[in-house]
Fold these 3 entries.
Entry 1:
Amino acid sequence: MTIDQLVQTTLGGLAIGCIYSLIALGISMIIRATDILHFAQGEMLMIGSMAGLSSFWLQGMPFWLVLLAGVLGGGLVSMLVEVVVYRTLRLRRVSAINIMIATLGVSIVLQNVARLVWGSEPLRYPTLFASGGVKFAGFTVSPQLIWIVLLSGLIMGVLILFFRFTRLGIAMQAAAQDPDVAQLMGISVDRTTTYTFAISGMMAGAAGVLLGSLFFASFNMGFLTGIKAFVAATLGGLGSIAGAMIGGLIFGLIETFSGTLISTAYKDAVGMVVLIAILLFMPTGLLTRGGREV
């Protein structure tokens, strides 16, 4: 492997890793708030990607509006699913394991709805970034990969600032840490849970637009990507926000380098091997949270 190939592979791994981090963040946020694994998180990515592509078809919007449409699409569908399905199940005192099974049902339903609306064929995304290479430090790099890394980093940075410096973010953290005490302090746990799903869906929607611009959009694009994001969240430590970011980047690099050094045909299998190894040797991940601690 030449130095130029090493730089390109590393940048590609960071770009796809950032996308995994955005989805893994949503998975970790929902675990912190509800102790539920949201298996339909990948479908929020798919909805965001399709919403962004549809907005481009209808209005020929510039990239930042396509990204905004994807963010809003993923957030609205995630919030709607939480209010209509998951909250109803919680009010009926359904066990957490049954709610997790329901998330699998939601995943299948959303895939089939998308198949009816957008068809079963992969859809080509428009050129949202400059396609020519850019010279940087003597190497030719893809501007698309650079933009994906920068935009993903910006979104994750805004999320950190939101949780640290806004009243709503602090309230969401308090509700996640101790729902009973938060209710005594006047915080609506149901409302903060809905906000958690909305924000996680928005991040997945943004990831969907970025992933679609890198490859293509399809009704089943979120299934395998969601599994990989779950692996990334497990690697970082389920429920850990910082762990989700780190785990996504590490997993993206592992997958990209395995595809380059071994074969692209086996990179998905490598990801599953990583998951099994994590569960065997490091079940708590790189960073561990204590209970519902924020």
Entry 2:
Amino acid sequence: MTGTTTKRGQQWRAARVAVALAAVAWLASTPADAKLGSCTDPVVFGTTISETGLFSTLTGNWRKMTEIFADEINKAGGIKLSSCGDKGVPVKFVVYDDQSVPATAVQLYERMASVDQVDFFVGPDWSSIGGPVPPVAERHGIPIVMGNVATPSLYQRGYKWVWGTPAPAVPRWSERYFDMLAHVDPKPKTIMFLTHDNPVMKAITAVWSKKAAAQGIKVVGEEMFSADLKDFTALIAKVRAAKPDIVYISSFDNPSVPLVQQLRQFKVRAMDVHHAMLTGALKKQVGKDLEGMTGELTWFPSVKGPYADLYERVMDRTGITMFDSIWTLARLNSYLVMIQAIEKAGAVDREKVQKALYKGTFKSPAGDIVFDEHGFPDTGAFTIQMQNDKVEVVWPPDVATAKPIWPSPTWQ
């Protein structure tokens, strides 16, 4: 009976995948007539977006954003190819919904390589999907620049066709915040880490607890909490007993909502409460409880780096703000890096683009994206603070929109 049930379950799952693929194929963009080396045909990017399923809340309006990005590039003359006398050729996207399902994503990238015959891959996002998709690029020899795939080990598997633009990268996540801590007065002496039980968040704590200690800030506690924990009374009792100058919350936004609320309810005092992922989604749920807190933001339009105007136009036309959709930068960067790599290669040539991407340096509004030998980027973030219900960039000083309010008066 167990074997029969398992077999039926496998058949049912296979049938569901087949139906899903048929649906997304019908909904997808027109298959491309991609011609490598052409000076007239569009350069075709194949991608999937998690428009439904678990990650769909993180990708609102990204299909429209992708279409607008292509429109803005094409209005500016397209992708410039030196092999075509610097002629600009348009960019075109083939887009599918991977439904937040790794197996579906793999089959869709196979389809884009074999049926749609796209020139290059951009996306996907999320480490759960960014793990199984790269082998498709390897098999077909198609360069892929993924978006929000932040787990470094996924890039360290000997691949030759895979890069990513997660922002920020874990080793640089709070770099500017700790630089700020070295300059504030009074300087914090102790810090406590409260960590969401998640691989990325645990990696952030591992890196930055060591950095704190190296900087002379004593780590007085590291506490872990599950994503479904609602009552933080016991954990907060430990915070109150330790009396850290800084409470560092290493967590995605939604799991930390009750934590932030209860830190306020129990009147925890500190120089600063720092959230590694301070977002519009968190603010919508906790409101004024976010006042005075600091955090990281990958980019803010006031930071006028290369291509900032392009990104602002795309987001304005799409109705997206970076604070509300923090994953947008990495996704747009995957598009922009691929375009720059093609222009460096000078031709729609996969091998030449591969060589251009290897250990390459590329421009973005938030600063240079520098790939290591594994295709992992060197990207940081800006330190922000909620001041008078408004997001302000407070560090580094050369791009700050306001000075940090220190110590945070709302936590005194």
Entry 3:
Amino acid sequence: MAYDEREAPPPPPNRTLVLALLAVLLISVVAVFNLGYFANAYAGLAAFLMIPAAIGGLISLLYDPAGRRFSLGCFLWPTIGLLVLTAIAYFVFGEGAVCIAMVLPLWIPAAIVGALVSRYNAKRGRRINNSARLNSIAWLSIPLLLITAETVAPPHWEIHHVTREAIIDAEREKVWPLLLNVPDIAGVEGTANFSQDVLGIPRPTDAELIVRSGKLVRVAHWEENVRFEEEISILKPGEALGWQFSFPDDSVQQHTDHHISPDGPLLKIETGRYDLVQLSNGKTLVRLTTQYRMRTRLGGYLVWWGERLLGDVQGNVLAIIKKRAEKSAGQG
């Protein structure tokens, strides 16, 4: 029988059902993002767009199941809901500030879109029996199906570089030793930046060049017991120093995003390199380059974050070297 617009439309979804679906979605997301099997999907469309859209859609069905209230609620309540969820993730589950800062700029708009879609579906005449219930269940099933698809078919690896430079008022001979060993870095050294002063990425405390099994290895320590190693692959005194990163434990991961390893299935921070160029005025140009590989369907967005985060760390390291080199040369 055809639907008669003069008749009352089918009833909106039951709020108890919607609340149950929202709870199941949140529990499923927490479970998925703590299982290594789904690691390929941690930086995909599901994690950054579909999951928050589903949360916003379900929040809209709780707030306005019939789509009769002002559309302002589609902007307000999903935003408040996500801010509450991220606060719980940060204070209760120890989620890192870096992860939260990366997802919120996409999560909030995606949640708003999801809420608007739910409102649109609620306002238009539903012509299929039980369609309201089917629409609400779809907000649970689609994200989980997309996570599974991205796990099975991840995108290809892409190589990216981040480079920062500093001009130091000192000869290369004064700068070169500081690229090999940087002991006893005080907390006041370096420069202020967003990544370390706002997001809380630890600052370096020392770097030491050692010999291990006949190979040169620079061991780096940061605050909060973070450590990693750099296996030297290029050594041209006064000209260039290159290395391959090695992460012997998860200390870096625990202070950035504990879901994504710096040497894992989505991200591999691979190599670093200093290049020194002697300028004609007795100054030295120091160029620091980091190469990493990443695979994600949100490449442009996450590459932007890589440029910010790694660039801030690089800028801080160069500021420390610059100050110490100029002081050694009698310029500071």
